[in-house]
């Protein structure tokens, strides 16, 4: 009798052990999958920031081909295409992302950004109009300001630029854009102030320095502004100021600034040399 009892007990133990082993294997599989997801997420982040843009595009193209329903991979491809200066291709990907069931307002704003980069201003405006007004971010208002600018709706543009400036810790880029908007309208004094503010926030923003010189030149202020600059930048700003002076009809001042630019530049300044030769030939002729 003891044998007959013992055999079922042994069989029961074997079944329990087998179930335990299967459970343990399942736990290991889940743990490995979790690690793989973490590793993939980290790799995605690396590809979006540190990788060569075209390398990132290739990576996300392969990933989306394997897993076409993954919105995070679609986002990665779209962002990588923007980094690779392929805005037109990015538009098509962002369109798919924006239509995805898991799409966010941030995705729609990124879609509008890609449309603006590709020159599709009306489509970008329509996309932004579809974003709820309660979604208030720096990127959204920056794009709204740019769209208003393109429509020459200056009051709206100024309002959007002002809001965007208050929604970021580094407003240098939006201040530079706002200044350029003012410059294009002929509001040179306001433009000068905005470019100066942009440089305060980011002293290495050469675009703002160059625009500042243009705004001052338009007001016939031909002295180089006191902003952080190296010798090469100083020569380049003198060249810009010279062209602004010549455009205003102050040819003698422009000629002097070109000569200063050539002398200041630490290397051969071909653009300034050519401009000076053309100016002198024109005067001689």
From TrEMBL:
Name this polypeptide is given: Flp pilus assembly protein TadD, contains TPR repeats
Source organism, top-level taxon? Bacteria
Which SUPFAM superfamilies does the UniProt entry name for this protein? TPR-like
Its organism's taxonomic lineage begins at:
Bacteria, Pseudomonadati, Pseudomonadota, Alphaproteobacteria, Rhodobacterales
- Which Pfam family is an annotated match for this chain, by its short name? TPR_16
InterPro entries annotated for this entry? TPR-like_helical_dom_sf (IPR011990)
Q: Which keywords fit this entry according to its UniProt record? A: Signal
Does this UniProt record's set of keywords contain NAD?
Answer: no
Per the record's keyword annotation, is Signal included, yes or no?
A: yes
Database matches in PROSITE patterns: PROKAR_LIPOPROTEIN
Q: Which organism is it from?
A: Tranquillimonas alkanivorans
* Signal sequence bounds: 1-18
């Amino acid at each position: 009798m003891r044998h007959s009892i013992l055999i079922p007990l042994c069989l029961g133990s074997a079944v329990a052990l087998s179930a335990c082993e299967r459970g343990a294997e399942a736990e290991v599989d889940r743990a490995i999958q979790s690690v793989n997801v973490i590793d993939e997420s980290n790799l995605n982040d690396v590809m979006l920031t540190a990788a060569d843009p075209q390398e990132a595009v290739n990576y996300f193209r392969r990933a989306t081909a394997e897993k076409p329903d993954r919105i995070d991979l679609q986002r990665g491809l779209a962002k990588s295409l923007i980094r690779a200066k392929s805005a037109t291709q990015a538009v098509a990907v962002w369109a798919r992302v924006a239509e995805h069931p898991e799409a966010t307002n941030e995705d729609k704003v990124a879609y509008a950004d890609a449309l603006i980069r590709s020159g599709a201003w009306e489509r970008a405006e329509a996309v932004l109009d579809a974003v709820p007004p309660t979604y208030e971010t720096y990127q959204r208002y920056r794009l709204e300001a740019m769209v208003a600018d393109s429509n020459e709706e200056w009051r709206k543009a100024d309002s959007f630029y002002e809001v965007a400036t208050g929604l970021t810790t580094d407003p240098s880029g939006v201040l530079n854009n706002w200044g350029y908007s003012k410059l294009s309208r002929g509001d040179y004094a306001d433009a000068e102030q905005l470019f100066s503010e942009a440089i305060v926030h980011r002293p290495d923003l050469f675009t703002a320095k160059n625009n500042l010189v243009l705004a001052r030149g338009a007001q016939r202020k031909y002295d180089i502004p006191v902003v952080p600059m190296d010798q090469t930048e100083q020569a380049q700003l003198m060249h810009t100021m010279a062209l602004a002076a010549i455009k205003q009809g102050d040819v003698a001042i422009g000629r002097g600034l070109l000569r200063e630019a050539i002398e200041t530049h630490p290397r051969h300044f071909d653009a300034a040399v050519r401009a000076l030769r053309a100016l002198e030939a024109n005067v001689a002729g």
